[in-house]
Backbone:
């Protein structure tokens, strides 16, 4: 990416340079072969499974059977897709609301302790995901202190799942937004304020616009894994509020309906791609208006 | 001026709240590593070590019953958890090393390559990061079950298949981390080395590799952490092999004993040490490359492939 922008203006000087350091293209082949076998291979077999016919318990015959995809379009399964995407979107928005001020605070108001704050954001992210979720369960437990003394009993509801989503993905959002805030030229904000804009409109018209790419990246980084989430709905939802990921998992463990599970997986990928495409379109459109 | 000050205080208060939110579950985890069994469980127990009470008879361990330190030694001698942790360490180390080698090779070639090769490669890399893990997990499960039918020497489900599956995501991660650094450091010093008569290989060995080292170390550690903490992919491709997250998950389902918290607390301490070391390595890399003394976070942000 950087290389492209460099070659044009420096094109003339390049010719005189004695050495143009490049590494042989063959170096990409180990990764390419690996991806072809262990990434594209499984995806290809997933597609062929989704079009296969279940002939018995755990037995299938290959073919071109689209009935599994018709099955997904039933309201029961569509509802689970809708729920998953809505929860992931709500979780992402909540993460933005909770995380953006922290990133802003770290970039704007901290100097000596900036690195420490960044470490503090990262440490939970590098602690076992399962244990953190279980600890959250202890806190939210209906016999726990929160329920007994504050009357907040949200265990095994979508609210508990929402708390779990925000909790687990918050660091992943804060980091890219913090990076974009760090890159920002704060004198622009001062200029806006000098020119008579108040603090809030300076933020809205300068800081927010300039860090929008970071927000877009961060939101995507949390939205994508949230929509494929498997553990949080299981532990904090108690199986009562399943995501698509849980239904897919069930098809390969308890239900043993692999063609349907494969079709659901493809469906999730398609739904996710559509959502992400629309999101990027909208986000970049906004950016264009701002510029 | 007074208004600016109050805005700053508001942000600080919000930050304190969020840090409490982030650390409360971790504090609970550490605290409950010292939790005693319930009074009724203690009354019915006649041994000397209260941590010998079987997990099913501990009573309600989600409330505080009293202080004990015996779970640490109970955890360290546990016949299920310790082998699972060892398995996870081995798989994560192998995945991290192989992924770093793959990622380094690809990053070197890709960074200065024509876009017609780079774009399709990048498309695959981003696809490996964007496809939900549960989808990759079930796809790998089918794939690893089918493959031995056609490839006779292919291993059955187990540690090997977990490793093979995890390398995909990790190789993409390491490639992005190393490439971000490689692109950022430019090619002037390499050119200088070449002008001064150094060959291709020795230029790489004496100039490029040492300058890339912080990124390589960061990529390896990051990959190790992801692999070690990964539940979903191993849960579907493990066969009968148990990794630490897998035994944790079944423990979480059926109620965990404080021994798990004790082990997690020990690992948290180790993680903090590792993070501090990583931070120091990154700081040194910033100092030695004499990059414009701009954002202190660029190293970390970029090393996570986000910058």
Residues:
């Amino acid at each position: 990416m950087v290389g492209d922008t460099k070659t044009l203006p420096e094109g003339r000087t390049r010719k005189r340079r004695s050495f143009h350091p490049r590494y042989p293209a063959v170096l990409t082949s180990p990764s390419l072969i690996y991806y072809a076998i262990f990434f594209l291979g499984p995806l290809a077999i997933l597609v062929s499974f989704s079009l296969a016919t279940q002939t018995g318990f755990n037995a299938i015959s290959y073919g071109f059977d689209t009935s599994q995809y018709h099955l997904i379009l039933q309201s029961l399964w569509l509802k689970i897709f809708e729920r998953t995407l809505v929860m992931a979107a709500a979780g992402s928005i909540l993460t933005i609301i909770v995380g953006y001020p922290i990133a802003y605070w770290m970039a704007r108001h901290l100097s000596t302790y900036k690195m420490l704050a960044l470490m503090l954001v990262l440490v939970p992210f590098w602690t076992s995901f399962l244990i953190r979720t279980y600890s959250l369960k202890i806190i939210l437990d209906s016999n726990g202190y929160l329920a007994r003394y504050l009357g907040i009993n949200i265990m095994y509801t979508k609210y508990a799942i929402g708390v779990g989503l925000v909790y687990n993905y918050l660091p992943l959002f804060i980091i890219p937004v913090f990076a974009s805030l760090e890159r920002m030229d704060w004198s622009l904000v001062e200029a806006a304020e000098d020119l008579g804009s108040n603090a809030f409109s300076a933020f809205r018209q300068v800081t927010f616009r300039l860090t929008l790419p970071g927000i877009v990246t961060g939101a995507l980084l949390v939205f994508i894994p949230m929509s494929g989430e498997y553990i949080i709905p299981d532990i904090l939802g108690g199986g009562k509020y399943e995501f698509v990921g849980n239904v897919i998992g069930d098809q390969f463990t308890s239900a043993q309906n692999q063609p349907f599970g494969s079709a659901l997986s493809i469906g999730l990928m398609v739904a996710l791609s559509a959502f992400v495409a629309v999101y990027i379109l909208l986000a970049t459109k906004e950016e264009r208006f701002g510029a | 001026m007074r208004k600016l000050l109050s805005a700053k205080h508001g942000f600080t208060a919000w930050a304190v709240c969020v840090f409490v939110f982030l650390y409360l579950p971790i504090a609970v985890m550490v605290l409950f590593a010292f939790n005693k069994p319930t009074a009724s469980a203690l009354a019915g127990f006649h041994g000397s070590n209260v941590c010998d009470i079987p997990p099913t008879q501990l009573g309600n361990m989600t409330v505080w019953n009293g202080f004990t330190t015996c779970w640490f030694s109970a955890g360290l001698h546990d016949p299920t958890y310790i082998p699972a942790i060892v398995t996870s360490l081995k798989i994560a180390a192998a995945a991290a090393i192989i992924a770093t080698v793959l990622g380094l090779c690809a990053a070197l070639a890709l960074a200065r390559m024509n876009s017609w090769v780079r774009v399709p490669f990048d498309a695959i890399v981003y696809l490996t990061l964007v496809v939900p893990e549960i989808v990759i997990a079930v796809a790998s499960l089918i794939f690893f079950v089918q493959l031995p039918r056609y490839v006779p020497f292919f291993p059955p489900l187990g540690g090997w298949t977990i490793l093979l599956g995890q390398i995909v995501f990790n190789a993409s991660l390491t490639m992005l981390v190393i490439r971000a650094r490689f692109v950022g450091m430019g090619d002037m010093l390499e050119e200088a080395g070449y002008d001064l008569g150094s060959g291709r290989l020795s230029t790489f060995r004496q100039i490029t590799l040492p300058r890339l080292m912080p990124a390589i170390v960061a990529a390896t550690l990051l990959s190790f952490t992801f692999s070690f903490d990964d539940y979903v992919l191993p849960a579907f491709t493990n066969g009968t092999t148990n990794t630490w997250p897998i035994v944790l998950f079944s423990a979480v389902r059926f109620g965990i004993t404080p021994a798990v918290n004790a082990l997690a607390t020990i690992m948290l301490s180790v993680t903090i040490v590792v993070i501090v070391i990583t931070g120091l390595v990154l700081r040194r890399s910033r100092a030695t490359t004499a990059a414009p003394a701009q954002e202190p976070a660029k190293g970390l942000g970029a090393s996570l492939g986000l910058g």
Remarks:
- Residues 118 and 260 of chain B are 45 Å apart (CA to CA).
- Confidence is low (pLDDT under 50) at residues 290-307 of chain B.
- The radius of gyration of chain B is 24 Å.
